[in-house]
Records
---
Amino acid sequence: MKKTLLIFLLSLLYSCDSKLENLIPDNHEKWPLFTHDKLDYFIPGHENNYRISYINEIGAKYKPQKKDNDQFLYNYPEGTIILKEIYPSNTYQPGDIPEYYTVMIKKPGHPHAQGDWVWLVKNHESKEETIFHSDMCVNCHEGANTQHPYGDKNLGKDFRDYTFFTFDGQ
């Protein structure tokens, strides 16, 4: 498992820009949880590491639009940040420290935005932010906009703006 994660992270580094841009504020622990689902199972790109997801206030205030056919259209506003704390194993105890964060920032005008999102990783210890130039993240997350095999499976075929879960507002 550790070897798989290491290979994955090394492959990402070859498709990333290691410039520190400071796009992520340090206070994410005060943001609402993006989902209350227990995220401890395998998902490609995130392995089966335990994950806790947060959304900033800009995204948390957004309400999806309902379309005529009972589908929902999610189009988070610019400035929305969705951050996942990634832990070393698939278990979590209060006080555990994440290894790194995977982050989506809705920033359509950014030169590295894909699907209007900037995709990056932030190292917990060094605070270094690494932007993905590869289309791996956006290509995978594009599946969230239709029925998919993860989470609630998006049975309504909603456009979810590249997020596999929807903000549950709690």
---
Amino acid sequence: MKGKELRQSRIRELLQDSDLETHEMLAAALRRRGIEVSQSTLSKDLRELGVVRLPRPEGGFRYGVPEAGAAPRDLHLLERELCDYQVQAVRARNLVVVKTLAGHAQSLCAAIDRMDWGEIVGTLAGEDTILIIAPTDQEAEGLLKRLRQLSGD
């Protein structure tokens, strides 16, 4: 594996396994793994990987990598739509019901569909309600937590 590929692979691993909030924290974690990186190279790697800042439940932000199959702009759009239009999200067994402002359920549902998350069997959208179907109760709970995290709740 080439230097850039190895470095970006380690960055992805670190961001999936750790709550890193700053470039400095990420650079220090890379150094502990024997990878020295400049600020400008790290910034370029983060852009190329599509890394985004995700809200943390306790406040502040952390770096996160987009889901496989989702373009960084798709994840950004989903975050924005969740923050702007989601009113409430609740779980009922293996279902997640998302209430939105009137007229926004279909666009938010389309943004969720673009993520191509494996734990979603299917979605339905009306005027102000989205029904998300997961295979199991546990996967629905994980999905609800992910939506809440992305929306900043």
